[in-house]
Amino acid sequence: MRVVRLLSGIALICAVSALAPSLQRASAHPPAIVSEAQRKLISEEVAAFRRDVAAAIKAKDAKRLQRMYAPSFVHTHTSGKVDSKDARIATLLKGDPVIETAPVSDLVIRIPNDWVGIATGVSPIKSDDGKTYDVRWTAVYTREGQSWNVAASHATRLGETKR
């Protein structure tokens, strides 16, 4: 019994010792605190990336879209249905009305740090019933190296568009 406890203790110490360097690295480089000038520049990067996504959708460039959407991407529809990256890209390529290509009002891009951008806006989206509804949406963008990815998006139907 003593041997089992001793071996368990040694195994625990080894596991903690093995994890310690990675835990130190993770906390050694937190996201940078950015100045207002940096926020503006990063916001412009995210806005340009949004335009690039829309251009890739218009061109029906599946390979480019695969690179632009994060592997773990999820989109929540106004109905509550959740799409994975592959399902979302299939929708984009079909040409269905989507928040990525719709006109936007109330666009705000928030930059909490140097590797995350959060865009919110309202877009008119034509529904399957033929009516056009205002949809409030949120999209989260993450920096990977020198490029951006779409990490997640969510849409909420507000009401029929009155324009």
Please give a structural write-up.
This protein has 163 residues and is α+β, with helices and mostly antiparallel strands. It has 2 domains: 1-30; 32-160, Nuclear Transport Factor 2, Chain: A. The chain is built from 4 helices and 6 strands; from the N terminus they run H-H-H-E-E-H-E-E-E-E. It has helices at residues 2-28, 36-58, 62-68, 85-94; strands at residues 69-76, 82-84, 105-113, 116-126, 132-144, 147-160. It has a 6-stranded mixed β-sheet with strand order 2-1-6-5-4-3. The longest helix has 27 residues, at 2-28. It is globular. It starts with a helix and ends with a strand. 18% of the residues are buried.
Average of the residue pLDDT scores:
84
Radius of gyration: 21 Å
Largest sheet: 6 strands, mixed
The geometry reads as: globular
CATH class of the largest domain, anyone? Alpha Beta
- Write the CATH fold name of the largest domain: Nuclear Transport Factor 2, Chain: A
Order of helices and strands: HHHEEHEEEE
Give the percentage of residues in beta strands.
35-45%
Number of helices: 4
Q: Could you name the ranges where pLDDT drops below 50 across 5 or more consecutive residues?
A: 2-28
**Domains, number:** 2
Oligomer class: single chain
Structural class, from helix and strand content?
alpha+beta
| Beta strand count | 6
Helix content: 40-55%
CATH architecture heading of the largest domain: Roll
Distance between the termini: 78 Å
Please state how the strands of the largest beta sheet are arranged side by side.
Answer: 2-1-6-5-4-3
